[in-house]
């Protein structure tokens, strides 16, 4: 195996070479014909992890992305709920396959390993850290974009009936909240300063930019939208997109640390934690 310097791994044989591109699509090169073609051959269990078609029993070759998703789902299912999606041998083969493919997902850092261990201990009824420590660790991993602490696709657990998903912060709409105050301050400044100073509006805009900016932040954050945070993501039950607003509006109290939301599509209720943006449905009766 060699690397040609362009992020392409190449495995050679006397007449054929297999190339995995940076886009993780496997190509085959036939030296006899001098042509590249996309690999569509049958999956070989001795060389890679293969899925099995339940209807036909035929082996299916998976992409790197599909294998990574299966690996992540298996880990989360085992540590979060104690259920094994794959046997030990299948999991080891999948992990080895991903390692040879150069996937970074199989290498856990210390925080991720500690997080998964905490989840496993909690499910066994012997927690190894407090709720505050767990939430702080999860928040750190979330800020680092760890795939083990952030799941943007809903997952449901059969044993509890609870569906969970991690929402994302809506920075675009959060910034739009400053627009009303910004517009009022800007046009007020422009009209009054022009009437008094009779200077070029562009020059007046430059002079007033910083105080208008500071005034916008102060008025919006302290008087209009207090302690605001907007999150969006799929409903844990039906995957319909939902948005949640945390904070107060003009003194009217809104959601604080936890929001209780009712999905407008499926009508299921779920809660969202402000600190982690973790959304979860209520346990099924």
Automatic annotation (TrEMBL):
InterPro entries: PGRL1. Residues 1-20 are annotated as: Disordered. The chain crosses the membrane at residues 176-197. Keywords: Membrane, Transmembrane, Transmembrane helix. GO terms for molecular function: oxidoreductase activity, acting on iron-sulfur proteins as donors. One of its GO terms (cellular component) is chloroplast thylakoid membrane. GO terms for biological process: photosynthetic electron transport in photosystem I. This is Uncharacterized protein. It comes from Corethron hystrix.
